[in-house]
Here is the input.
Amino acid sequence: MSVTQASPTTPPRLCQGWPWWPLLPLYPYGHRRTLVRELVPGQVWSFEQLQGVLYVAVPIRMTVVRLTEGLLLYAPVAPTQELLHRLRELEARYGPVRTIVLPTSSGLEHKLPVPAMARAFPAAAVWVSPCQWSFPLPLPLPWLGFPAGRTRVLFEQGLPHADQLHWEMLGPLDLGLGTFVEVACLHRASGSLLVTDALVAISSEPPEIFSADPTPLLFHARELGTEPLTDGHEQRRRGWMRLVLFASYLRPSALAVPPWPEVIAGSFRPGVRAAKAYFGLYPFRWQRGWEAEFEALLAGGAHPLQVAPVLERLVFPRARTALVAWLRRLARLPGIAQLVPAHYTAPVAASQQDLQRLADALEQRPWAPSSGSWEFLAGVDSALVRWGVVPDVPPAAPEATSEG
Ligand SMILES: [Fe+2]
Here is the structure.
C-alpha cells in the first residue's frame, strides 16, 4: 500500500470557524481545525477534524476520492474556509467536486455538515443513504437544508459512478427512534473501501490531529482536578488511552466517580482556574491497572479493525447476523487493499481475507457482553428495551449492493 502524507501546514489566516456548531454542540465547538493527508497519491485524501463531548474527542474524517469526472466527498465534515481552500486546491488539479455522499442515516455528526457542503458546491449532486430520519420531529430533507433539486437516495434512485465505485449497504436496522443504515463504498482504482461508523481501528499513540492542540489529552492525563495541565509525550499518551476508553465504553470499569462535594472542593485551585481546565472540575478517579483495559481493547482481535464497543452494545446488540453478512459481502469484493473509516485511524491495510477472518471472529466470540467495562453500555441498552424505545427482536437485513 502506498501511503504518503501531505504537508499538515495550515494556510495562513484561513478561518477555521464553523457557525453551525450550536446545532450539535460538540468540542471543539465553533473552531474546527482540519488536517489534510494524502492517503493514496493522486487518488484518496483524508480531511480530518476533531469532535467529541467535552474533551472526549476523537478524529472524524471526510474522505475525498478522485474519479475520472472529478472528486467525490464521502461523509463530509464541517466546511470551514480552511477546508474549502484545501478542497479548491484539489479541484484545481483533479477536477470539480461532482458528488457529495451522506453514507449514514443515523450519524448526526456526519449529516449536519452536508447542507453547508452542498451550498459550497452548487453544481455537485448530493446522494444520501436510505431511511434518513430526524428527531424529535420527522422533517423532510429539504427542511433540513438538503437541496431538493439535486439530492437523491442511494439504491432507491440509482448509484453514482457505478463504473468506478461499488456500494454495499448495512441495514436498515430498527433502532426504535429511527433506523441505522451505513453504505460502504469501494473505490476500485485505489482499492480503498470507505466505511463510516461500523468499523474502526484505534491507534496506540495519539492521532496527529492532536499535535496542534493537545488540551483534551492533557486534561484526561491527570489523576486529580487540582493538577495543572502539563504537556509531554507520556501525558499525551496517557490522555489518549483514557479518552479512547471513555469513547468506547462511556463509563469504563476502571473509572470511579468521586462524590461531588469532593470534586467541587478541588476546583478553582491555583493553576486550574481557567475555562480550558473546566475550572478544576474533574469527576474522575482512574483505578490502579486501568491501562490493561486499553491494551485489551486494542488486542481484542487478530486485526486492528474492530467494531467499536459503543456500537456493538447500543446499535448492533441484536444485529450481529446482519453485520457479519455485510462484512462477508464486503469480503467478496476483489481488489480491497485498505479501509478508510470515518473515525480514528486511516488508512488501515486490509485484504479480502482479513475481512473474512474478521467476520469469522465476530461470529465466534461472545457478542455484546454485559460485564466489566461493558456493564454501563449494557445497562443503557436494557433500559431502552425495557422502556420500549428500542425493539428487542433481531432486525431483518435485506442485501443491497451495487449489483442490486
Ligand atoms: Fe460517526
Q: What stands out?
A: Residues 107, 109-110, 196-197, 342-343 surround fe (ii) ion (CB under 6 Å). Residues 1-11 have pLDDT under 50 and may be disordered. The chain has eleven helices and 17 strands. The chain has two domains: 21-202+304-358, 210-298.
